[in-house]
Amino acid sequence: MLQPKRTKFRKQQKNVSNRSIATKGHYVAFGEYGLKSLDNYRITARQIEATRIVISKCLKRGGKIWIRIFPDKPVSKKPIEVRQGKGKGDVDHWVATVYPGTILFEISGISKDIAMTAFKLAAYKLPIKTIFISKQM
Question: Which terminus of the chain is more solvent-facing, meaning fewer CB atoms within 10 Å of its CB: N or C?
């Protein structure tokens, strides 16, 4: 699964206000077709990996896939049945903060109908609403 090799600090604070729209990574840059988010959410590394596997199985080793998001934010969690206090818990998993308009995945080298079916199957694995877009030529 995706996670950073190293970080400057082990734990981060939760970003409470997640109400803006994407200003970076909001257009198809590398491929021909893209999967665009319509919601704010924190997508985990497991969800990104599950989506990547579904897309690659649908493409049957044809075309190229770009993952445009990276889970670089640690989320900590305390163990079960531990009393409150005594500091912050250990890092449990990694998330990528996604804003409306962010391109999540891109595909090139395949036909439009195959790309649409691949992204439709991929959208089932994600906890947000998404839309299929193509590159403006």
Answer: C
* Top CATH class, 33-75+91-134: alpha beta
Question: Which token pair is 62?
Answer: 């044809």
Take residue 81 and report the two structure tokens written for it: 């049945």
Its pTM stands at: 0.91
- Compute the distance between CA of residue 34 and CA of residue 26 in angstroms, rounded to an integer: 10
Read off the pLDDT band of 55 (50, 70, 90).
very high
Encoded tokens for 17: 């206000």
- DSSP-assigned letters across all residues of 61-74: T-SEEEE-----EE
How many residues appear in the chain? 137
Backbone angles phi, psi at 121, to 5 degrees: -65, -35
